[in-house]
Amino acid sequence: MAQQTSETFEQNARQALTDTQLRGALRNLADTFGDRRRLALKTVDNWEALRERGRAIKAETLAHLDKYLESFANNAESAGAKLHWARDAAEARAIVIGLLREKNAQLVVKSKSMTTEELHLNEALETVGFFPVETDLGEWIIQLAHETPSHIVVPAIHKSKKQIAQLFSAKLGIAPTDDVDVLTGTARSVLRERFAGADVGISGVNFGVAETGTILILENEGNVRLTTSLPRTHIAIMGIEKVIPRLVDLDVFLKLLPRSGTGQQLTAYQSLITGTKRSMDDEGPEELHVVILDNGRSRMLSHPVTRQSLACIRCGACLNACPVYQQIGGHAYGSVYPGPIGAIITPQLNGIEKARQLPFASSLCGACREVCPVKIDIPELLLHLRAEIKEGTASGTAGEHGPVKRKLIERLAFRLYAFAWSSQWRYELGMKLARVAQRALSHQGRIGKMGRLLSVLAPPLAAWTDWRDAPTVANRSFRDEWRQHLSIRK
Amino acid sequence: MRVSLFITCLVDQMWPSIGTSAVEVLRRAGCEVIFDERQTCCGQPAFNSGYRSDARRLAKRFIEIFEDGKVDAIVSPSGSCTAMVHHFQELFANDEEWRQRAVRIAERTHEFASFLVNVIGVEDVGAQFKGRVTWHDACHGLRDLHIREEPRRLIQGTRGVEFVELENADACCGFGGTFAVKFPEISVAILDSKIAAIEKANVRAVVSGDASCLMQIGGRLTRNGSSVRVLHLAELLTAQE
Fold it and tell me: Using CA atoms, how far apart are residues B79 and B82, in angstroms rounded to an integer?
């Protein structure tokens, strides 16, 4: 598949809609994860109160992020970790490459981490001769297929069992089979060898606890535990927003995240890592390096609306609930982070110009806000970014810029609408003209599919009528009825 | 109870029967209804498209028109446009005077079904409609205004109605304002899940609280040659069939 970017979102989406296998997989995802999540919510007494606590903790942390980050760094260092600060993706990649060179790493294993996807870390490591092996099953499948994740929690959700069987057969030389046990067994035996030989393990971080310097990583396959304990060196990459104040706060987030993400009451493994091993008898790596990444995040802090973006705990619930994601999947977004959360953070991370279609790729239905475990008002953020794109006024995101890519006709259309509809007589005159104009189009009180010429003259109307009949402006408006019949009655 | 009708431009010009029905229902429920003919549009198309200065202009005009009416409530047959009025304050984050005026207007502005059930406590307006009907939750009514049970109770209060719940009643129909024409293929793909559920429900009519959703759903139903009708709740509540 050709590399899709956010700039070609419209075409990507159109292509995705023709992919029947993908759409089947997406229906399955929405149904299964939606149902599992709903059931899992019933296992806590007061889900809404829990969400509110999650939101409040994140808001408090983000309001004093400098303080909590400093405290995290100090406590992690006291426990034996080495801290590295990366302003952007390039700095983070350089830090990791420097560490791998210093360790003379021969074999690097990796656990699933969206932050490393954001850094395009694997690509960068491969260009300098390191070939990290993904050890999460889904991520490994994606790596074998030379693809990118299409979901932030279930990265290979776009692939069918049959496609995976073919992939394993082609890449690993096993006999083609759709027996899931054989497929996972193959993965396990191949990956076990890699773990045994690895000298460096790279992971992400779900939460960094300020008061103890502990990092927490959640997973279901045991590969994170192996990645972070078998190799002598562990490199953990963590966005600045991952810090939480206290260990007890995990009580809230460990209830929120697995239920929202996979509909589990708890993931199979929770690895809490505080520094390095203290004595020769301890298990765990001799060196722990924590790379703390900004990469555009501190910019989001500067405005109360965009700041919410940093509360995200990457559960993926908004993807599963989104009617747009459910139809087109993750690759169409052309960004590392897809779906509703991707549509708000991609323009802020990568620059608003290149991702300018994404905030508009939403019906603003609010399903994302409803499922978000930390109550991020994603529709509010989408609207904020739309204003920023069109007017350059809703300050606080991707740095200094004016309105992005002016669409002059659209700009004029809205200006004209606001002008005309600011007066009763202009509004009524405009609608009278519309009644005359539509005579050429309407048939039996509606407008059906239009011919080519008319489509060129009125593209938005054609975009509607290509698929749906349009109603016509009524011969007698409500206000006509009111004046003639309704106003005199009591 | 004296109420001012916020008709919405879409109902005024495209679907006046919703407006005349709403007036009839409100009068039957004992309200005195007034209609200020100066009103045009709340500005939502501009707000949702990122043109906040244009939206602000229309929002200010709306506030000026509706705040001087000596009425107890402002009622609108649209969850989406009512929600927009509740969003006005976001347009005036840097203008405290206007922000407060926006907040005061929002407090008095109610969606039609919510007004009937929650404000004046009316659930039976003497309507009759024979046959199976279902309900589509319009997103802004459901998720911005938290209106869920009110329309269902009003439908079930209609004589002759057999109400069936749609399997994806709370899923978006794919309209989304300019989204429907900016990304028509995605919009219609979302819509077709809704249409499939409606056809499966085997109903005579699908009822909703927003003309915009009804335009989207109805436009696809007639294009497909379906016999299922779309009705606004106000229209159902004045039916005698």
Answer: 5
Residue of A nearest to B33 (CA): A490
- Find, among A298, A309, A302, the residue nearest to A396 by Cα: A302
Quick check: B139 and A365 CB within 8 A? yes
For A287, other C-beta atoms within 10 Å of its C-beta total 18
Residue A435 Cα distances to A165, A459, B18, angstroms: 60, 18, 19
d(CA B110, CA B145): 9
Return d(Cα A387, Cα A394) in angstroms, integer: 6
How confident is the prediction for chain B on average, in pLDDT?
Answer: 97
In this prediction the pTM is 0.96
Q: What tokens does A41 get?
A: 């919510």
Nearest CA in chain B to A370: B143
- For the cut 60, the answer to whether the pLDDT of residue B51 exceeds it is yes
Residue B163 DSSP SS3: strand
Which two three-digit tokens encode residue A438? 């539509």
DSSP, residue by residue, A355-367: TTTGGGS-----H
Pairing of strands A133-134, A108-110: parallel
Q: What's chain A's average pLDDT? A: 93
pLDDT > 90? residue B70: no
Q: Which residues pair with residue A443 across a beta bridge?
A: A446
Q: Domain spans of chain A?
A: 44-295, 401-489
Cα–Cα distances in angstroms (integers) from residue A246 to residues A75, A269, A352, B154, in the given order = 12, 20, 34, 49
Residues of B in contact with A14 (CB under 8 A): 185
User: Hey, are the CB atoms on A421 and B185 less than 8 Å from each other?
Assistant: no
Burial B64-94 (b: 16+ CB within 10 A, else e): ebbeeeebebbbbbbbbbbbbbbbbbbbbee
Is 3.40.190.10 the CATH number for A44-295?
no
Residue type, position B64, single letter: E
Q: Tokens 């204003």 identify what position?
A: A387
Question: Which member of B23, B51, B184 has the closest CB to residue A467?
Answer: B184
A205/A292 Cα distance (integer angstroms): 10
CB contact under 8 Å between A478 and B176, yes or no, is: no
In chain B, which residue's Cα lies nearest the Cα of A422? B58
Considering Cα of A277, then A279, then A281, then A286, what sign does the dihedral take? Answer: positive
b/e burial code for range A388-402 (CB count within 10 A of at least 16 → b):
bbbbbebebbbeeee
pLDDT tens, position by position, A199-257 = 999 999 999 999 999 999 999 999 999 999 999 999 999 999 999 999 999 999 999 99
**Spatial separation of the C-alpha atoms in residues B188 and A311, rounded to whole Å:** 32
SS3 category, A485: helix
Say yes or no for a CB contact (<8 Å) between B222 and A469.
Answer: yes
Q: Is B118 exposed, middle or buried (0-12, 13-18, 19+ CB in 10 A)?
A: middle
Dump pLDDT digits (tens) for B155-186: 999 999 999 999 999 999 999 999 999 999 99
